[in-house]
Amino acid sequence: MDTPSPDWIDAQRKASADAMRAATSATELTRHRPGFGWTVRPAPGSILASTRVANWDPEPDYFHHWIRDSAIVLRAVPLAILADPGARSFWLQACRDFILFSLHISDPARRVPPSNPLRNSTRGSHLKFLRPDFEFAALTGDAWLEEPRVAPDGTPDPEQWGRPQDDGPALRASAMMALLDALPELGSPEAEALIDRDLAHSARIGGRPCIGPWEEWPPRRTSFTLLAQWDALDRGATRAARRNTSHSYFRGAADRVAALIQQTRTAQGGWLESLEAPDDRFDSATVLAILHAGRHDGSFALTSSDTRATVSHLETIFANLYPINNGRDVPAIGRWAEDVYFDGNPWYPTTLGFADLHYRIAALTTDRAAFAKAEAWMALIEEVAPAPAGALPEQFDRNTGVPVSNLDLTWSAAAFLEAAASRDTALQAMAGSM
Length: 434
Known about the structure:
- Helices cover 48% and strands 3% of the residues.
- The protein has 14 helices and 6 strands.
- The strands form 3 sheets. It has a two-stranded antiparallel sheet. Strands 3-4 form a two-stranded antiparallel ribbon. It has a two-stranded antiparallel ribbon with strand order 5-6.
- The longest helix has 23 residues, at 410-432.
């Protein structure tokens, strides 16, 4: 099997840390959307899904703060510091600002105008994209925690989008708990208040149908969202016990969500895309949720038989779906079989996620076959990634491997840092087993 170049990994690690930094607290940037008559400048603590200025022409417009994406990036901050120690002070301040920004955008007492503020400035060609006034009027209380994204200046998203989405607060809670473990100097009453708010919300709504991680209709109970909620609530119960506060509420909520996840197990093994999915629908997001949870034992462990079965199903699906996979030892990984977004292609976060997972399996088990597969996935990313090392796109073409869709996805940068760090751990484990 192919292996990645260590020099490329070192260069891409620094480039990915730089890309994450460029998207965080990007107060020097200004984005004007002429179709809406809307100008926005990111606030301190915001994390752009992408710094690219695009208008679906064809590159998508990701100049927003997504709750889900920002949580994934937040979790990789300690790795960005390791890649660039000189940026430590920037990241510590950015994380403090992120906490305050997140408290602001999720404040249940927050009030906004009861109608879309862009209605009078929007061109006729763009009116169909405006968010209805009744949704603005309903933005109060817990509704703020159902928002999938906000403008990077903290104002409500004025565009139509899929709502509610319930993965973001759960991922943010687990990311915050992990961040405070890695960087305890970030501990503060505000940090604890944000975790408390996100956990309480996740416990209240955990397990209900909602828009899934890929933001596709209809609302359903996706394995990704359920796993994210279970992980946050389970960790929240442990946190409450450590603080000598009642943990039974979070434990009960975690158990209820776990029981729902069990209902997605197939007779042959593996987790389906959702409770509502047909028996042959698997989704790479399920594997990403297992990866984010990072458990070493139990049904949702990195090494569990159901994790391995889910991975096997998805490998088979994508090996037969994408021409770029012909003759490869490991297949480029997309989202799900019927994906048509930008014609349906492999994604950087999912392919890197499969590499990351197998590096972690190798570190836990010293399984050389798992390590070899992880190396082949990382080598595939090296093959298709733009050169020299720099920003990583969202997707690569299913036929040629050229960049597709967004050309600088902050999530891709975070996914690379996670996979590279897991590779380091796996190499140490493999060396120790010889």
